[in-house]
Every structure is written in structure tokens, then in C-alpha cells.
Amino acid sequence: MKTPDAVQAILDALGRQHPNADTELKHSNAFELLVATILSAQATDAGVNLVTPHLLATYPTAQALAAAPVEDVEQLVHATGFFRQKTRSLLGMSAALVGRHGGEVPRTMDALVKLPGVGRKTANVVLGHALGVPGFPVDRHVLRVANRLGIAKSDDPERVEQQVTGALSPAWWTRASDTLILHGRRICKPTPLCEQCAANALCDFRTRSGRPAVARGALPGRPKAARRPARKGPARASGKRR
Fold first, then answer.
1. Architecture of domain 30-130
2. How far apart, in whole angstroms, are the C-alpha atoms of residue 205 and residue 74?
3. In which residue ranges of the chain is CATH 1.10.1670.10 found?
4. pTM for this one?
5. What confidence tens digit (pLDDT) does each residue in 76-93 have?
6. DSSP conformation class of 211
7. CATH architecture designation of domain 4-21+136-195
8. Domain with CATH 1.10.340.30 in the chain
9. pLDDT digit string (tens) for 162-209?
10. Quick one: CA torsion of 47, 83, 32, 140, rounded to 10 degrees?
11. Can you say whether the dihedral through the CA atoms of 9, 10, 11, 16 is positive or negative?
12. For residues 18 and 186, is the Cβ–Cβ distance under 8 A?
């Protein structure tokens, strides 16, 4: 495990590479983000962002969604996949908000994870991005990137959360998660682009794999696409149908 100073140095480097890291789920309040995060399971953020505007325009509050017909919600969220399970979670979560919290999203981890369909990751997303409470969501990108970098050593999301947050100031937790997620999507993919990583010189995976270090501040740009040679002779008419 790396020291807190080393963990901070890595996050500083990645933060400069991804300066605008943030959740990509569109929302204007905690309830909307809670709905969107539940729908994001096994779905892309872009796909969820296509669904939530109509869903939330039709059922904008916990009270409205709790009373919604199951068939209507299933149809509205169908495109996100696992629509029956997600509908049960949304309706159960909304009913619990109304019955236990007056329709408002609670501000504590303990209360959030007691809502149907809400686990630690979802709770941390809502706490950190909508309620101003430090949270460190751990998804598959965070698991992969944190273990490769050496800032965590576990396959258990809650253990990784404990290890990383234990090395950082709470003010950094949400930003750190967003940064690791974006880094996992853009650079540290299942097949990593180590030569494009701002934390390359500090990474355990790069050292173990024997890949060359890249000096900080000297990352190569993306290679330009090769230019196709000009075709000789008169251009032939395309045979493609329009």
C-alpha cells in the first residue's frame, strides 16, 4: 500500500489530466440523482440521460413516483435494461422516502442504504454530488484503476473505499472517485494506455508489467491518423445506394 502522500501525488497528477471530472448523470436535485443512479446499473450514463427527462417530467417527486402505475414506469425505463427490477427499486425507494422521510432524500449513509435498490455506491454518488456530504463511490473503473495504481489492494468495493478514503482528506473523496472513473474510461481501460497516463511513473501496474515510465509533464499527444494516399486517375462514381 502506498503512503497518503503517494496517494495524494497520484490523484494530483490524474486531477491535472482530468480537470473537469464529475458525474455525467444529469440531475437538478438529490431525488433526480438518486433515480438516475439506480437506473445506471448495467447501463451507460448517456443512455440514462436519455430516459430520465421524460420519467422525471412525468413523475417529478417521490410522492408522484411512489403512486405511479408499474406498467407506465416499466415502459419509461425499458431502454436502460433490467427494467422490471429497476422499476421495483424506483417504486420501493420512492415509497420509503415518502413513508420514512417525508419525501426527502436523507443525508446519511445509514438511512440511504436502507432504501430499496440503494447500495453504498449509489448512496455515495448522491451524498457527494447532490447533498454536499463527502462520499467515495466505487464502481468497476475505480476497482480496476485503484488496484493497478497501488492505492488500494482489494476486490471488495467497501474495502477499496476504506483504503482510499483513509489516505485522503474527506474534501477529496468525491473528486477522487470521479477522477478515477474518468481515468478508467479514457486511459486505464481493461487494455491500458499506459503511455498516456499522467501517473505513469507512480503506477504499480506499469512497474510490474515492465513498461517504460513517461516523465511527468512530457506525456505524448494522441497520434495523428495516417493520411491515405491520393487516388490516381479520375474518381469513379460511387455505387452505393442512398
1. Orthogonal Bundle (1.10)
2. 43
3. 4-21+136-195
4. 0.85
5. 999 999 999 999 999 999
6. P
7. Orthogonal Bundle (1.10)
8. 30-130
9. 999 999 999 999 999 999 999 999 999 999 999 999 999 999 998 888
10. -60
11. positive
12. yes
